[in-house]
Request: fold
Amino acid sequence: MLKFLKSLLGSGTEKKISLTFEEIPAYLNERETTAQETLRVEVQEPVRAIKNALAGLQLTVNNLSGADQDPETHPKIKSIAKNSLPLFLRAMNSSLAKELPEEDPEVFYTAAVESVKGALNAVRGQGRYLQVAFPDEMKETRAGIDAVGREINTMTKTIGRYREKAGQIADTRSAYAALVAAKEELEHSQGKEERLRARLAEISGRLEQIALETTKLRADPSLSSLDAERERSAALLRQREECLRHYTSLSMTMSHVFRKAEKIAVKKHLSKEVHLLKDAMEILSDHEVAEAEPCAGILAAAGPVAGQMIADGDIILKNREERQVFSDFARYSGEVTGLCTRFYGLEKECREAEEGLLSHPVLSRIEALGREKEQQEAMQKREEDLLAELLNRRKELEASIPDLTEALEKKLENMIGETVQLQAGGPV
Reply:
């Protein structure tokens, strides 16, 4: 393999290079190692020269700290230079003290650039006040900075070439990773599709079983014996509704007259009577049918109050129902109480009849199958949606793989400088 890779990194006389997918990672690693080794060799001399130039610049700065000002310098400039010198020296020493790790050329280069930038800023800052007072020393300082800059410029070209190669390798790795990810996802999707289809087949089979069992149960001979029970249950429901209708009619008629009586009692300030009439209207107007015992007591108390007002002519009965009810209130109040009792009795019978029907083993099983059918259909819909989503994603992946392969070939060609042909020599 190593011999093969070295041949690829040789003079480049081949017109076409063939690579299998499985060879690409090792090829990229080898090319990256070669680029790093080439960089280290090419920067050895610039690194040495930069360190020497920086050492020389540091010596110049050290000499400046003990240098005397030009005796012909104007006193005012001398005073400014005296104040500026410590600031300049501090800035220069800070810049030149940056650590320069030779083992990492890129880090070394970045640190050297920062060091020179700091020195230039110091010269352009506090250093401009020292140009007249220390002309020779500042000239040497600028020359030292220029010397470092020239070596950095030499190294810049080398670093630039390396970064270009490293960028090409990184781009190629990204293109390879994208193609690998697409192929792996496509491969995994096949197993996922198989699982989804198996699950859908299982659900469909269960739904068929439910349908067959339900059809068989509906034809069960024992269900025919339930016809009489169903009819009895329906008859009880009709009786309950008729009882409720009759109760509602009588209670509304009584409530209407009691409301008139309550208004008259309010006007006459008959507080006890107002209370009795309000109780009657409340129990009769409730959306639930009244209990028989409390209803009988309340009507027995409120009926005579309204009856006396009718006898005194305070209340005029305007329809046949009101006149009929209050012409014999005791009878009709008893009828209302009896309807209360009958209604709750019928309601109990209806509930028991319904429970009896539902407790039939065949009907219970049909109900259970119906609930299971709903659950299975919900799961079927969910699995079908997942399968549709998976198949759409697979189409996208299948369409993207040729484009990703072509992109990888172009990245390789751009990196190598030769035509590249990818071969399916092994799995990615």
In short: Residues 1-12 have pLDDT under 50 and may be disordered. The first helix runs from residue 2 to 8. The beta strands are 16-20, 419-423.
